[in-house]
Write a structure and sequence with these properties.
40% of the residues lie in helices and 20% in strands.
Length: 313
Amino acid sequence: MTIQQLKYIIALNDKRHYVKAAEACFVTQPTLTLQVKKLEDEIGTIIFNRDKSPLSPTPIGEELIAKAKLILQEVNEFNKFAYEDRIDLSGECTLGIIPTIAPYLLPLFLEDFVKNHPDLKLIIKEMDTYQIIEALNNGSIDMSILSTPLGDSRLREINLYQEPFFLYCKNAQRFTNPDGIEQKDLTPENLLLLEKGHCFRDQVLNLCKKSKTEENNNFIFESGSIQTIKNLVEAGLGYSLIPQLSIQHSSKKSFIKKFKPPVPTREISIVVNKNFAKEKLLENLLMIIKRNIPKDIKKIDNYMRIRWKEPVL
């Protein structure tokens, strides 16, 4: 029994005529007739009643044809998964990523991803959250990595990990709770923030339960770089909250203060438009990132997800 023979009996059932069925299958009539007869001989069952005109399937033939259609449907799905998705691993793909993730996550997985996709040209763009949402919806980028949830029904979010917040402060005497930092310990004085437009800024303000008008430094400095914020903290000019990957290999261990459980985190996800069709590529990106992120991020179980303060409508 072959897949081609199943195609022949389906075509013959549709056309009820050997010549028309053969034409539909792009073979000669004798070839189709011979293969249908071979199939009947192999299974020991008459599929078509040839005494009637036009010919028609026998009762058992009708059941076999119905099963043949299901089998071919499964074969088509298999071929789509095995071959068509492989095509999606070539060509060009544009990935948008927010600046508070890019410098820390990309070095962890990018070499592995590129090595496993030699035929794919990956274009990476640092963009803020609103730019990414617009680009995903107008088709100017294919995939993205950013903090979620976004609250946009046009987009599909695939969770990667929960990234903990840490307090970063030079003055250790200011935060002395041996069990960890609590939200009530956070005040707006000397709190260093990213500039407006970064969702991480809004998450920090949300965690601190402070509005933007309550910021009360004797100087104001807003940066687009977490590294710049860290440098200011190390100079003794304030404190900040930073994501775990930004201090993963830090030598300033004394500056890093953990939060008391449940640990506040930001949710990091791959986000695509709901019409995105390159499922195999999406699965590969998800798998490669997850196998390259630190194990302590994978093992977080007691956490509190901090939403960004200005969700997309």
